[in-house]
Amino acid sequence: MRTWVLPEYIEDVLPLEAARLERLRRDLLDLFRAQGYELVMPPLLEYVESLLTGTGHDLDLRTFKLVDQLSGRMMGLRADITPQVARIDAHLLNRKGVTRLCYCGSVLHALPASPGATRELIQIGAEIYGQAGIAGDLEIQALLTRALAAAEVRGARMDLGHVAVFRSLVHAAGVGAALEGELFEALQKKDASALKRLARSLDAKTRSALALLPELYGGPEVLALAEKKLPRIPELTRALATLRALAKACPVPVSIDLAELRGYHYHSGVVFDAYCEGVTGAIARGGRYDEVGRAFGRLRPATGFSINLRSLAGAGAGPQRQRKPGGKGKTR
After folding, report:
1. Stretch 6-32: mean pLDDT
2. Between 326 and 70, where is the model more confident?
3. Sequence-ordered list of residues with C-beta below 8 angstroms from that of 290, at least 6 positions apart, any chain
4. Per-residue pLDDT tens for 111-127?
5. CB neighbour burial string for 229-264, b if at least 16 within 10 angstroms, e if fewer
6. Does residue 13 or residue 56 have the better pLDDT?
7. Domain match, 64 and 152 both
8. By residue range, what is the domain housing residue 107?
9. Are residues 161 and 150 in the same domain?
10. Tally of domains in the chain
């Protein structure tokens, strides 16, 4: 075996792409700093219980784990920087008012997130702590679209969802945790027959609403249909109003997906994915995660986004990337 061959889905970054990445990193961090976001640099390695706090099981399978030879405790190589920044806000800064933080660094995935995806991403992002309500959501969305514009991507668009739509329906119907989990899985797969079977024991209004959710996908006009067809639950009504305001304010085309439950055990409100030409899958993701602070012992409103910088650099205008011949280490 050739000793210099890299592991699968891991690659070197060659000069042209490295130069593009560095320029883009500087441009985006300067943009964030100009808007009042302070730079933090969390460690690549942490104890697993700290690294995965507040994330449920969403990151567990993606996290490389190893034993610390000094303490004997299990450690993890971060697969996402966002929980680390939440920890910094809660325990190290511990400010009372609104805090705006940004970051940039490598993250490692034990398995590729999608076919052909690199396992070593460069993640850049921004987070707001201590600002409840739609003002923070609007600010984060505006900052993300400005970042995409700075990268000169083509065909930028945004997909919006809100976990409170599904959550409010099952909670109002008194659905237990086990059935809620099964309904969640069926909705993620958009499995209409499974949804119908699992909802048989629920009242007719809830059954009808759950069956409708997979169909509530499209342009902002979807929100008018949702307001007409879904039950008038206060939390659900507020969620639809938030989505309407975000869709109206967004400077790029918007799609609505009321069955989108990505990060259901992590997010508490609006969720969004950004897409552009030349990149398979989302180039940026984010949303509101107010409940994560509770896991760190300090409940605090939080919202933000993270961008795959390597994908963004490849999608934007500028010199073409240099590619390493052969191997499976490909940029998303």
Report:
1. 94
2. 70
3. 132, 268, 269, 299, 300, 301, 302
4. 888 777 889 999 999 99
5. ebeebeebbbbbebbbebbeebebebbbbbbbbbbb
6. 13
7. yes
8. 1-156+297-319
9. no
10. 2
Do the Cβ atoms of 74 and 105 come closer than 8 Å? Answer: no
Q: Residue 307 falls within a domain, yes or no?
A: yes
Query: What gap in Å lies between CA 71 and CA 137, rounded to an integer?
Result: 41
**pLDDT classification of 227: cutoffs 50, 70, 90:** very high
Q: What is the pLDDT of residue 162?
A: 95
85 and 12 in one domain?
A: yes
Chain centroid to Cα 309, Å, comes to 14
- 165-215 pLDDT, tens per residue? 999 999 999 999 999 989 998 998 888 899 999 999 999 999 999 999 999
Say which amino acid occupies 239: A
Q: How far is CA 80 from CA 26, 120, 121, 299, 328, in A?
A: 20, 11, 10, 20, 22
188 SS3 class? helix
Kindly state whether residues 145 and 241 are assigned to the same domain.
Answer: no
Q: What are phi and psi of 119, to 5 degrees?
A: -95, -5
Q: Of 82, 161, 157, nearest to 126 (Cα)?
A: 82
Whether 281 is in a domain gets the answer: no
Residue 18 buriedness (CB in 10 A; 0-12 / 13-18 / 19+): middle
Together in a domain, 52 and 183: no
Nearest by Cα to 330 from 281, 275, 286, 285: 281
In a domain, 326, yes or no: no
Tell me the pTM.
0.89
**Contacts (Cβ under 8 Å, ≥6 apart) of 70:** none
